[in-house]
Design a protein that fits this description.
The protein is mostly helical. Helices cover about 60% and strands about 5% of the residues. It has six helices and two strands, in the order H-H-E-E-H-H-H-H. Strands 1-2 form a two-stranded antiparallel sheet. The protein is elongated. Keywords: DNA-binding. This is Heavy metal-responsive transcriptional regulator. Pfam families: MerR_1.
């Protein structure tokens, strides 16, 4: 397969592992450059688009927002401050994930306690889970 020949949107989607609509969305959002158009009007892509889509997909999997990914893409070509700024963004993302993990652990601990205290039978008004969900002070 000649990788230097122009690719269709379908070929790019398949190679990057994303739906075609995702490519169009990322183009509208400015995460991908507007592609060249063939004489037929079809979009024409290069290998760099496949690489960018894979970058975006991996960054999303690590929890980066599209706005953060836009910054990372811009910083990836900044030879002066790019790596330092990318590390700073990654550290901020890591800190946010750690906060979220702590929140989820707190929620898990509360749910474990409620599940353990519920006998699983009896009248609904005596169910500790339902009582906790109805109690405004537990929110």
């Amino acid at each position: 397969m000649n990788t230097s020949s122009p690719l269709t949107i379908g070929a790019v989607a398949k190679r990057a592992g994303v739906p075609i609509d995702t490519i169009r969305y990322y183009e509208r959002e400015g995460l991908l450059p507007v592609p060249l158009r063939r004489a037929s009007g079809y979009r024409s892509y290069g290998e760099s688009t496949v690489a960018q889509l894979r970058f975006i997909r991996r960054a999303k999997a690590l929890g980066f927002t599209l706005e953060e990914i836009r910054d990372l893409l811009a910083l990836s070509s900044d030879r002066q401050r790019g790596v330092k700024a990318v590390k700073k963004r990654a550290e901020a993302r890591l800190a946010a994930i750690e906060v979220r993990i702590a929140e989820l652990q707190r929620v898990r601990d509360g749910l474990v306690e409620l599940v353990a205290s519920c006998p699983g039978h009896g009248a609904p008004e005596h169910c500790p889970i339902l009582r906790a969900l109805n109690d405004e002070e537990n929110l």
